[in-house]
Amino acid sequence: MTRLLTVFLALGLVACTTVPPAPQRTPEELSQLWQHHRKVVLQWHAWSLEGRIAVNTENDGWSGELQWSQSPTGFQIHFSAPFGQGAFQLVSNSLGVEMRTSDGKHFQASDAESLLQQHLGWQLPLDAFRYWVTGLPAPGTDAQLKFNADGQLAELDQEQWHVSYPAYMNVGTLMMPRKIFLKNPMLGVRLVIDHWTQESHG
User: How many Å is the Cα radius of gyration of the chain?
Assistant: First the structure.
């Protein structure tokens, strides 16, 4: 009887024990953590990612796999839809951006947004997206930032787009975005990144 009472008392003590909440970081501490992330990412010489993307407009939807390689001189972005529904590649060069389709057609424009609008019916601001996808605002325009408890970018409002970051993943010593959701009044984009590769200066 005494042993049972001791067990019950012990269980009661365990049940009443609560884990103290983790101390909340100050806005200054959150900013310092994000500034470290920003500093390191901006030193990347080149990066690439592989993932899955879904694009939804008011009247249509598109989903598939995405491969993106970014360097200081340009990008190569490959979209492929499942079940042979089509694929296309965007490649930047000295003349602008070229779209290459799976049926062998080539189209040229001064920017990627124009090509996407002309041939797919929707626009994605790739010049800004190249920064957003790494967890940074695009330079040159104002942005509103919100951070999570770990000092990572949680939400971003810039260029009439709302960008949210529901999940991150380990990439070397950094936490890089794993899920990125973009939305404006005309378009919604969901990107899930399966793999990051980065190359630093030097």
Answer: 22
Question: Would you list the DSSP string of 131-143?
Answer: HHTTT-PPTTS--
When divided into structural domains, the chain yields a total of: 1
Q: Determine, yes or no, domain membership for 78.
A: yes
Residue count of the chain: 202
pLDDT one-digit tens code per residue, 146-174: 999 888 999 999 999 999 999 999 998 89
Assigned token pair, 45: 């010489």
CA distances for 85 relative to 54, 81, 101, 105, angstroms:
14, 5, 12, 16
Q: Is there a domain that residue 174 lies in?
A: yes
In the three-class reduction of DSSP (H, G, I as helix; E, B as strand; rest coil), residue 10 is classed as helix
Q: 3-state class of 69 per DSSP?
A: strand
